[in-house]
Amino acid sequence: MVHLPRAVSRLRSPRLTSQLGLMLGVAFAICLLTGYLSHAIQHPPGWFFWPPRPVGLYRVTQGLHVATGIAIVPLLGAKIWSVYPKLFRWPPARDVAHGLERLSLALLVAAAGFQVLTGLLNIARWYAPMGFFFTVAHFWTAWIAAGAIAIHIGVKLPVIRRALTAKVRPAPADDGWTRRGFLATVGAAIGVVTVATVGQTVRPLAGISVLAPRDPRVGVQGVPVNGSAAAAGVRDRALHSAYQLEVIGPSGTKRLSLADLTALPQRAASLPITCVEGWSADAVWTGVRLRDLVALVGGGPDDTVTVESLQENGPYRLSTVEPPHARDPLTLVALRLHGEPLDLDHGYPCRLIAPNRPGVLQTKWLARITVGVA
Asked: How confident is the model at residue 2 (pLDDT cuts 50, 70, 90)?
C-alpha cells in the first residue's frame, strides 16, 4: 500500500517548494501565452496579426492551452501541500515585506483556483454554476494571477535562489518518501491527466482519453457539435424555402438562394475545426470560396469581410474576417461536410469555414456577408 506524506512530513522544504514553483511557473507561462493568443484572435487589438497558415496552428496552441491548464491541477495541489502549514502561522504579517508576500500568495491561490475551476467548467461546457461571461472573467483573472506570481517571485527570489542552488542529498522523510520520489509522483499524475484528456486534440490518443468530455471521432456527420440549431433559435429560418444569402459590397447587393450558391464554382478544403474547449476534429468541407463571393459584389483582396448569422442573439453571431483569411483560397462558405449537405446543426444551409480560426468564429447559418466593413 502506498502512503502519502503526512501533513507534518519533513519532506516539505524550500527546495521542494521552489522546484514545484518552477514547474508551476513554466506551466502557467505556457497557459497564459496560449490563452492570450486565443483571446487576441477573437478580440484582436490593433497591432495583432494572426495568419491563415499553417491551417492547424490554432489547433496546436489551444490544445496546448487546455492540456497545460489541466496539468496545472495536480501541480497546484502539490504546491499548496508543500506550503500549507505556513499559511496558518500567526501573526499573518511580521513586517511590510512579509505582508506583501502573504497578500500576493492569497491572490495567487484565489486566482489560480478560479482559473482552474472555470477552465474545467468551460471544457465541460457547464456554464450554469458561473453566472458570468466566462471569457471575460477568465481573461482578466489570468492577469491578476500573473501579477500575483510576479510579486511572489520578487519577494521570495533570495529564498528560491538559495534553495535551488544548494547541494542537498535526497534523504528520505520520516515516512519514507524522498523529494525526488514525490516529484516523480507529481510528474506521473500530470502524465496521466494529460493522456486521459489530450485525445480531444491528438486524435491517435482519443481512444484512451477517458476523461476527455469530447471524442473528436463522434458527432453529427463525424464532427462534434457545440451549439444546435434549436438552441440558437434558427431552425425555421434556416429551413425556409425562401432562404437567401445576402452579399453586400461596393458594386451592390446580391441575394443568393441555396440553388444559386450550389451553381457557383465549388471547392473542397480539408480543414480542422478547433474549439476553445480544447477539442478539434478533421473535416472535409465543400462550398464557394469567400473571395469569389467578395469579387461578385466588387470587393477586392484587401477588403475586410463581416459575416452575420441567422441567429439573432449571442456574442458570436457576427464575425470579422480579416483580409488574409478572406482572400485565402481555403476560406469557404461551406455547403457540404464530408461530401454530404451540411446537417442543420453544422450550419445548414451554409456556414463559414476558414483556416486557423477558433470554432466560435466559424459562423454557422449565414444570413449576410458584408464586404468592406472593418
From this structure: very low
Res 3 pLDDT > 60: no
Q: Which of 294, 316, 289, 321 is nearest to 306 (CA)?
A: 321
**What pTM value is reported for the model?**
0.91
Rounded to an integer, what distance in angstroms lies between the CA atom of residue 18 and that of residue 29? 16
What is the chain's length? Answer: 374
* More confidently predicted of 86 and 194: 194
Rounded distance, CA 370 to CA 305, Å? 6
In a shared domain, residues 145 and 240: no
| CA-based nearest residue to 139, from 170, 111, 104, 98 | 111
| Cα–Cα distance, 17 to 10 (Å, whole number) | 12
> Residues of the chain with pLDDT > 90: what percent?
71
* Bigger pLDDT: 373 vs 102: 102
Confidence of residue 265 (pLDDT cuts 50, 70, 90): very high
Listed residue (193, 199, 198) closest to 72, CA to CA: 193
Q: Grid coordinates standing for 345?
A: 446543426
- Name every residue whose Cβ is closer than 8 Å to that of residue 86 and which is 6 or more positions away in sequence: none
Examine residue 41 and state whether it is found in any structural domain, yes or no: yes
φ and ψ of 284, to 5 deg: -110, 120
Bin 48: left if φ > 0, else alpha if -120 < ψ < 50, else beta: beta
Lowest-confidence segment of 56-70, 85-99, 131-145, 153-167 by average pLDDT: 85-99
In which domain, by residue range, is 341 found? 229-371
CA distances from 232 to 42, 130, 238, 315 (A): 20, 20, 11, 12
DSSP secondary structure of 265-333: PPEEEE--EE-TTS-EE--EEEEEEHHHHHHHTT--TT--EEEEES--SSTTSEEEE-HHHHT-TT-EE
What is the count of structural domains for the chain?
Answer: 2
pLDDT at 100 over 70: yes
**pLDDT digit string (tens) for 8-17?**
467 888 899 9
Single out the residue in 208, 240, 270 at which a domain terminates.
208
> Does residue 160 sit in the same domain as residue 29?
yes
The span from the CA of 14 to the CA of 11, in Å, is 10
